[in-house]
Amino acid sequence: MAERGHSLESIKASIEARKPDFDAFIDPQKQYADAVIEVLPTQLIPDDNEGKVLRVRLIMKEGVKYFSPVYLFDEGSTISWIPCGRKLTCSYPGIKFNYEPDTYFDHEVSVLEMDGQFDRLDELIYVESHLSNLSSKFYGEVTQQMLKHADFPGSNNGTGLFQTIVGLKIRDLYEQLIANKATAPAEAAKA
């Protein structure tokens, strides 16, 4: 709302107008997706009506060939982390991360959640260093991509972070598929 200058009422009206199409075409597809990004109201600010702060969930299906879900600290554990302090600048209401295994449409999933927003994108490297299976090609690639697109809507919250991570996952998936396709004829010739 704040970034694009819309009122809460106009956004709710727009969502309601699109809801029949969402219910008919988008929502049913989530059960087949390997990764889903959900954008939700913050839980950091009680009774928030401004919508400036978002809670964003990255839901990643387990057991998918060529796709390893991202995790925070310890794969498969339940983690709640408030990284504000000496290494990450956080103004009110702060930032909170959660990671946990869960079930989504009867599939085992890993869920990474970010509630809040970054004050300084260059400090994202601290958060990035605690995430594993990012499919990045080098240390700091997520932070580099976020800084490169710092003026994009959502760049300071979980929407931008998780879209960047999913982009890296898609690149990695594509490269694995291409590599597998290239080795298949060679293996067939050996047989």
TrEMBL record:
<dbReference type="InterPro" id="IPR027417">
    <property type="entry name" value="P-loop_NTPase"/>
</dbReference>
<feature type="domain" description="Phosphoribulokinase/uridine kinase">
    <location>
        <begin position="1"/>
        <end position="45"/>
    </location>
</feature>
<protein>
    <recommendedName>
        <fullName>Phosphoribulokinase/uridine kinase domain-containing protein</fullName>
    </recommendedName>
</protein>
<dbReference type="InterPro" id="IPR006083">
    <property type="entry name" value="PRK/URK"/>
</dbReference>
<dbReference type="Pfam" id="PF00485">
    <property type="entry name" value="PRK"/>
</dbReference>
<dbReference type="GO" id="GO:0005524">
    <property type="term" value="F:ATP binding"/>
</dbReference>
<dbReference type="GO" id="GO:0016301">
    <property type="term" value="F:kinase activity"/>
</dbReference>
